[in-house]
């Protein structure tokens, strides 16, 4: 059987030194260190070695569909359902959640703090032509952003709408430099808000902004590390893995960066 090879320079980091090698694609959980905490604990238990490919949700799913990685951790429920239905992904497992915050200049020129919904906040931004940073990369964050614009019946365009085609932390930094609004996930904000001293949380709390993460596998036999990746998903969804998730960041920041699967299930 021939498996698609992953180029060495596609791998952002390797965790563990075991003989059971598998590849995983994800974005923010890797950037923020949660993936490392999970992978290193799992590697000791399963004589494993994880190779992390840094990619947003859209690209992670493309890599999984192309059999370039064994598994993905993503936050786009509709795409997850379609991938499973179409048969090129399996093992759908709810693992965690966080939420999206809309941050922006502290003087809030578009007055989004007065909004009663995320849609209302976006309507206010567009109406005021307040600067807004978009990742524009088909990540889960970008997909959620576009769903809100659609609800607001706004086609964002113009000098006020700044597209980075970059990851969450870099885009947050750009929003700070531009004095712009930006939709960041709560985990990134808790860990990285020091890079955006000019910004503040201006809108939060809409149930539509709860952000659920799922793990997905390539089908049996499609990739070389399938069996180890399957064991990793089982570990992540176990009480031990869920404790790593629910505790992550608490000692350093006074609050966890992610909610566990039991909490996330309320928003499925």
Which term fits the overall shape? Answer: globular
Total DSSP E strands: 11
Strand percentage: 15-25%
- SSE ordering: EEHHEHEHEHEHEHEHEEHHHEH
User: Level of helix content?
Assistant: 25-40%
Descriptive keywords:
eleven-stranded mixed β-sheet; 268 residues; alpha/beta
Question: What does the model show?
Answer:
Strands 1, 2, 3, 4, 5, 6, 7, 8, 9, 10 and 11 form an eleven-stranded mixed β-sheet that branches. With 268 residues, the protein is α/β, with parallel strands linked by helices. Helix 5 packs across helix 6. Strand 6, helix 6 and strand 7 form a beta-alpha-beta unit. It has twelve helices and eleven strands.
Short précis:
The chain is an alpha/beta fold. 40% of the residues lie in helices and 24% in strands. Strands 1, 2, 3, 4, 5, 6, 7, 8, 9, 10 and 11 form an 11-stranded mixed β-sheet that branches.
